[in-house]
Amino acid sequence: MAGPQHNGVDAAIALLLALVAHNGEATSSALRREIGAPRASFYRIVRTLAAAGMLEAPRGLVRVGPLARALVAAHAGAVKREDDFRAPRGSRLDRRPPVSRTAEAMEHGPVALSPPSVPPRATRFRIGFSNASMDNLWRVALVHTIEYAAASLGETIERLTVLHAHGDAHQQEADIERMIVQGVDGLIVSAVAPRMVGGAVAKAIARGIAVVLVDRGLDPDVPRTSFVTADDATIGRLTALWLAERLEGRGAILLLPGDCTAEPARMRLTAAQAVFSRFDQIRVLATQWTGWRREKGREIVRAALERWGSEIAGVWCDSGLQGAGSLQAFIDAGYRAGEIPPHTGGDLNLAYKLAIRTRTPLAAVDFPPSMGIKALEVLLAALRGAWTPRSVKVASEIIVTKGAATRSILPDRWAEDHVRWDLPDDLVLASGLGPAYNPRSFRIHYPGNVYNRSAALGQTRAPA
Which site among 44, 198, 219, 430 is 20 to 30 Å from 225 CA-CA? Predict the structure, then answer.
């Protein structure tokens, strides 16, 4: 923002924006060059803002001051309250916050921000959603949340286009380029493989299109306006710690992660393995990828029971999508209520139903599809000219069956209060779509959808 300033207010604003671009701290000389202010004027502005608490100015540096940090913290608190409002209601067992909050970044320094992708315009925006796949029920819920958000914000959206790549990175690249040609203003991308589609994303950003990655996108080489997700490492770590403590630090276990090609599954497994490695008497019998498919989980555990039988002391799953299949395999093998070893893995209504019916100890941290709502909100903020956080983590809760809490893992909610007996088995929870959300009867009207039918309808290819 170099160049002559019209007045001191312009120069002060330019200084604050330059400081944001440097993630909250930079040398005085660098900032003065960037805003193009005379030396005397620059230091007068710095002293004035420092006196007000907006800045701190130790020798040779300028950084965010206590008042600015308080303002950011207040905004983070507002985001937290919005997340709390969307979270499913239920009894709170303690006063701890859920495991992942946008505000957590404040503990480690200023929040990294992205500048507006395009000049703000008084218009309705054309939005594209490039979806990695429709391989499991969680992805149905993610599509529904983005459609719901588009319908709720219809006065600011001209059109929402949803394209499914069906697990093909090359197809996803073509889909993104197609939407660029169609003239979208902003994109939400759930990437098959973030690095593989990075070129198409970079092309969109180079053309002034805001891009918010959702669910997957940790690769630092992939450009983005923002990345909205939940804390996968925390999901893996907390569920593994619960299982280890539930087994009192000893026993043979199965590890059933999701899709080996998916960033969230790899992060959860790595975190879980790190926890289990701290317990010398816990032995991993096998680690097998399930693709987040119920029947695959059932098949793997059926074979494991034939091989190891009652030697299996626990089953770690990173989601109930395959966890429901594991529980069903034990039921098929004749295990009665109270005999099935402890399990982990949430998300899916059926997983909670089976665990409660069979009195199986279970712990889970849902991967909330409500991140789709947040992704569209962040995208629209960028299109309206706001500076947006580079990363947003959506809140999730620790869910445990009654009586199964451990020393370290205390639940935010009992599974018995979280399950929905009145809704279908294939319901994915923590969607943020309200207590009446039913994936089987979901109908939606949003700009660009002339038939009031979800783009997810009939798209799920793999068995649940």
Answer: 430
- Domain span holding position 385: 102-230+369-394+434-464
| Adjacent-strand bridge partners of 428 | 348
CB-based contact 323:349 (threshold 8 Å): no
Number of domains in the chain: 3
Q: Are 420 and 434 in contact (CB under 8 A)?
A: no
Residues 443 and 349 in one domain: no
Number of other CB atoms surrounding residue 368 within 10 Å: 31
Q: Both tokens of residue 219?
A: 């690769």
Q: How far apart are CA 107 and CA 110, in angstroms?
A: 8
Single-letter code of the amino acid located at 167: G
Task: List the CATH number of the domain containing 126.
Answer: 3.40.50.2300
In angstroms, the CA 31 to CA 309 distance is: 67
Q: How far apart are CA 259 and CA 433, in angstroms?
A: 26
- Those residues whose C-beta lies under 8 Å from the C-beta of residue 31, and which sit 6 or more positions away, are 15, 18, 19, 22, 42, 62
Q: Is residue 418 one of the residues assigned to a domain?
A: no
pLDDT tens figures, 374-403: 999 999 999 988 888 999 999 899 999 999
